[in-house]
Task: structure prediction
Amino acid sequence: MLTSILASGLAAGAIYALVGVTYNTMFSTSRVMSFTAGQLAMLGGVLGSMFTLKLGLPIIVGFVLTLAACAIVGIITEFVAVRPVLKSLDQHLYVLSTLALALMIQQVAAIKWGTEPQPFPRVIGLGSGVWDEKFWLPVVACAVTIVGLEYLYRRTLVGRAFVAIAEDNFAARALGLPERNLRIASYALAGVIGGIAGFSGGQLLLAFFANGALLNFYGFVPVALGGLGNNRGAIVGGLALGLFQQAANFLVGGIFSSVAVFTLFIVVLLAAPQGLFGGTTARRV
Amino acid sequence: MAISRRNVLLGSAGALGAASFSFPKPAIAQSEPIKIGCLAAITGPSSAPTVGFNRGINFAVENLNAAGGVKGRKIELVMRDTQGDPTKAVNATQELISQAKVHAIWGPFNSGEALATTPIMGRAKIPDIHPCVVESLIDTKKYPNAFRMAPSNSQWDDAVRNYCLNVLKVKKVAVIGDTTGYGVTAVGASVAAFKKDGADVVYQANIDATQPDMTPDMLRAKNVGSEAIVVWSVTTGMEARMFNTRAAMGWDVPFVGHPSLASGELAGLVEKPENWKKVYAIGYKSCSYDASGKLPPKSEELVARLAKANVSLNDTLLWWVAGGIDAIELIAKAVAESGSTESAGIVKYWNTLSKYPGYFGTYTFTPTQHNGYPTEEIVMSEASTAKNGTFALAPGYT
Result:
C-alpha cells in the first residue's frame, strides 16, 4: 500500500507542481493569475495523443509539436486575456478574462477531440508495477523542468531579465528591458511547462478534455500553499498535495479524499495566509 | 319577386336543417402525411445513439412509404437537432407542436432532455415514445401520453442483480459508481436492492472519475472479499483504470454493470486486451449472439434486411437501429389501427398493446403501465465482444 501511495502520489503531485509552476511563470511577469494553466496541461495530453497516436508521428516529434502548440496557446493567452486587463489589475478583471479563455479552450477541445478520454501512448516503455513509467515520468519531467528553470533564471541573460521584471517591473523598464516582449516570452514558457506537465502525465490522466478543470484546481492549491510566485513552494506544495491526496484515497475513500485535501488547504491558509514559503509583504499605509 | 314571410321561414328552416347535417371532412385530412417529430441529438457530445436511431427510423420510413404508406398516407419525419441540450430540446418540442404540427414525437434520447420536454408534450397531449431510462419520465397520471420502449434504470438494476445473484451465484458484492448525480443515485438504488435480496454488499463507493489511480478502492474491495464488482458509471476512463488495476493486482473478480462497460473506446484505454475480459455489460436478448455466433431468428432476418438496404452496423449498436425501427412502426401501427392521427386514438391503441413483437423487444403497455420493455429480455453481454453492433451473451445463459 505504501509503495502505491508513493508511486501514484508523487506522480500526481509532480503534475500538480508543474501546473503550479505554470501559474507562477505567468504570474511573475504580469502579476496575473491566469486560469488557463490547467488547460495548457490538458492540451499537453490531448495534443500529445493526437500527434503520436492519431497522426502516427514519432514520440519525439509529437512531443516537440505539442510543446510548440502549447507555447502558442500561452502567447494567445497573453494577447487575448491578459494584456487588455493589465491596466486595471486592481479590479481583478483577469479572473474573468482568463477563466473565459480557459472555458473556450476546454469547449473547443471537447468539440474537436471528443468528450471521452482517449489513450496516451507509452513514451519510453520502461518499467512495470509501481515502477511503471506512468508513475516516474512526471516526476522526472518535473525535476528536469526545475533544473532547466533554475539554469535559465540564474545563468542566462534572458532568465535574469525575467527575474528583473518579476522583482520590480518599473525598475526593469527604467533599465530598458523590453517588458512586453519578456511577458510574451514568459507566457510561451508557461505554455511549454504546462505542455510538459500534460505530456508526461498523459499515461496517468489519459487524453481527456475534462482534465483541464481538474488541473486548474489542483494546480492552484500548491501555488496557494507554497506562496504566489514561489516555484520552490509550488514544487513542495504539489508533491505534498499528491501524496496527501493519495493517502486520503487509501484511508478514507474517493469523495472524502477531496474533502480532506481542501480541509488541509484551508487549515494551512488560516495558519499561514501568505503560503508556507511566501514572504510577508509590507502594506503601504 | 316579392319575398313573403312564408318564404323567409322556409328558407330559414332549410338553412338550419342543412347546418344540422355534418359536412364531409375535406379529403386533405385523409391524404396529408403523418408527421412524426424527432428530437435527436444529431450533433454534440451525446450524438452517438442518434446515429443508430436515425438509421433505424429512416429505414422504417422508407419501407413503409415504399409499401404505400399507412392507409395511403405517407410518413414524414420532422427532424430537429437538440444537440443533447435540454434548452434546445424544449424549444424544438414547442416548435414541433405549434409550428410543424406533428402528430407524434419520437425522442428525445437522453433523460436530461426528456425531463424538460415530457411535461410540455404532456400539456399538448402529443403522443411521445422515447428510450430514456430515468424512472420519473413515466407516470401514467401526469403524462398519459408518454411511453418508454427501452428499459428503465430499475430494470437495468434488476437485470444486473439477477445476473450476479442467480447466474454468477455470488453473495458478496462491491458496488462502485462515479461521483456524478447518476452515479450516486444508481449506486444507492443498487445497494438497497442487493440488500433487500439478501446479498452482502461488502463495499460501496463513489469515485471521482478523474482519479488517476484506482488501486485504493480496488484494494479495499478485494480485502473485504468481494466476489463481483457492480459498476454504475458512464465514464470509460474510470472503467479502464479499474480493469487495468484489477490486472495489476492479479485479481480475477468479474465486473458487471452499465452498458458503457462495453463501449468501443475501452479497447484503446485498457493496457492489454485481456484486461477487458470477464467484464459483463447490460445488453439485450434481441441483440446478443450465442456460442455459435447466431442472433435470434428475428434479429438475423433484420440484419439481413439492413445489409440489403446498405444500412451499416459496424459503427453503431443494433439495439439503437432496431429501436428506431420499432418506434416508427409503433406510431404507424397506431395510426392504422385507430384510423386517424388523433392523439387520443394513438394513445388508446398503445395502451392495448400486449406482447407486441418489435425487433428490439416485445412491448406491453396498459393504461397504468407505460414501461413497455420486458425485464426478462435484458441480459448480460461479454463486454469486449462487439461485432456489428451486437455482443456475445455472457456466460450462464442457454
Q: What stands out?
A: Residues 2-271 of chain A form a domain with the ABC transporter involved in vitamin B12 uptake, BtuC fold (CATH 1.10.3470). The CA atoms of residues 224 and 273 of chain A lie 9 Å apart. Chain A touches chain B through 27 residues (CB under 8 Å).
